[in-house]
Amino acid sequence: MANRNFNPSPSNKRKRVVIIGAGIVGATLGYHLSRRDDVSLTLLERGTPGSGASGHSFAWANAFGKDPREYHTLNRRSLDMWYRLAHQFEGDIGIRYGGEMRWENSPDRAAQLRQRIRQIQAWGYPCRLITRDEMLALEPHLQPGEVLAASFSEADVHIETDTFIDVCLQSAYESGAVVHSETEVTGFVVHNGSITAIKTADTEFPCDVAVLASGVQTTALGSLVDVRIPQQRSPGIVIQTTPCAEVLHNVAIIHAPPMDAKRHQHLHLRQLTDGSLRIGQGTQEGINRDDSQQHADALLDRAKIYFPAIGDAKALPTPVGYRPMPLDGFPVLGFTKAVPNLYIALMHSGVTLAPLVGEMAALEIIDDVQVEWFKPYRLERFG
Ligand SMILES: Cc1cc2nc3c(=O)[nH]c(=O)nc-3n(C[C@H](O)[C@H](O)[C@H](O)COP(=O)(O)OP(=O)(O)OC[C@H]3O[C@@H](n4cnc5c(N)ncnc54)[C@H](O)[C@@H]3O)c2cc1C
Known about the structure:
CATH architecture of the largest domain: 3-Layer(bba) Sandwich
Strand content: 15-25%
Radius of gyration: 21 Å
Bound molecules: flavin-adenine dinucleotide
Number of domains: 2
CATH class of the largest domain: Alpha Beta
């Protein structure tokens, strides 16, 4: 996305909110805040928007594997909100519809899949078991090998995060927000226990509310005002490829089992509108630090077994991405007790959760309400 350094225009708007971080969470929140007349909004991003975890993400919006039920429901609500968001904009905002398809080739895993589908069906998730013929009708290019159980979750989508972040920031800008990229926040001015300005190397941005939507750096920024936000380190790799033949005609996301379970993990794959692929292995939370070309080539070779038509694709060098990951794996949302005008928006599954968090956090920040859905996710749970 183009670098945007705009001069703030004089504003008579009321609450001055500064968001630190223009990943998918900061950008979505920025979009919602900028729709309010009673907000004067500034977004500060140290790199280019989307260059943090959002740019490394597999970006599957879903509630498939989310437990317990309360957290599943939070993700499910947000997944549904992607559809509403799409109606608020004209044109492409980066949502890729089609659902998620997976299958298993071992008896144990097949039994687990059947059980999971029954569980989330009972929770009202739109998914079902499908036959091999139905799989091939959905994706004729697929060569799945042995299929002992398969499922289709029709509501799941994937997001082209660069496109979506760009759309949000453009909309915020048109509504009067100021967006500074290549602008690193280095500290805070604190007066009587509250943040009165955000410091960068060159200047200070006065504020009434400061929002940390800063991904993995949220912990370091919080510590500057003695707010402890515990995180675990969670590296992951989603490889990218050159554009290739269109192999996903209907389904947005594929999860394939390993051909050789002793040597390999499950593989997940999506295809972008430019024809390039994003491929990861293991679970959505799996730890992986191997950003070697050898690993990327091997992953792509495995994908080619399922989709021989992508034979000409090449794996591109792709660095490790770090998931923003609170210590217990659940989001941290809300104002802090220690610094009452500091709002935290830190989470894994931020691509799934961005629509809900963006809209509800805007209510908490401007309307002074406590959204009950966020109750389990307050920072104070860490003591
Ligand atoms: C490998 C991998 C796979 C994933 N798969 C999925 C998935 O399938 N589905 C899903 O829902 N989620 C997935 N996630 C998680 C999801 O990508 C993240 O939860 C989401 O991108 C977080 O968005 P964010 O805006 O909070 O953080 P980020 O995208 O990291 O944005 C934070 C921004 O803050 C900026 N920043 C930091 N410090 C400062 C500072 N001092 N000053 C100014 N700016 C600063 C950074 O430059 C960055 O751009 C995955 C993540 C990874 C890494």
